[in-house]
Design brief:
Helix content: 55-70%
Shape: flat
Order of helices and strands: EEHHHH
Number of strands: 2
Radius of gyration: 19 Å
Number of helices: 4
Largest sheet: 2 strands, antiparallel
């Protein structure tokens, strides 16, 4: 069952059995660990997000979805992030 909170749906885990709750808890822990491992092995993700957020804050686009689409489909994005990765490796 789902409860509506501030426009977002929140799952009611109380409807799960204790075994199901424990499996869900373990799944969440494993997912967080896997996500952390992925992000640590892909530092370009931090650069991608940071670059995007900087542009959003500087340009304050009226249509954030269109802006994000344009930003992440930019044909030069790979080169831009690659050069920033090189800059970071030189300064470290």
């Amino acid at each position: 069952m789902m409860a509506r909170i501030g426009g977002l749906a929140k799952l009611d885990v109380a409807v799960l059995s204790p075994e199901q709750q424990e499996k869900l808890r373990q799944f969440k822990i494993k997912t967080r660990i896997d996500n952390e491992k992925y992000l640590r092995s892909h530092p370009e993700v931090e650069l991608l997000i940071g670059d995007f957020l900087r542009d959003v804050l500087l340009k304050r686009p009226a249509d954030i979805c269109e802006f994000a689409s344009d930003h992440f489909t930019n044909p030069n994005l790979h080169e831009t992030i690659g050069s920033k990765m090189e800059e970071n490796s030189v300064t470290e």
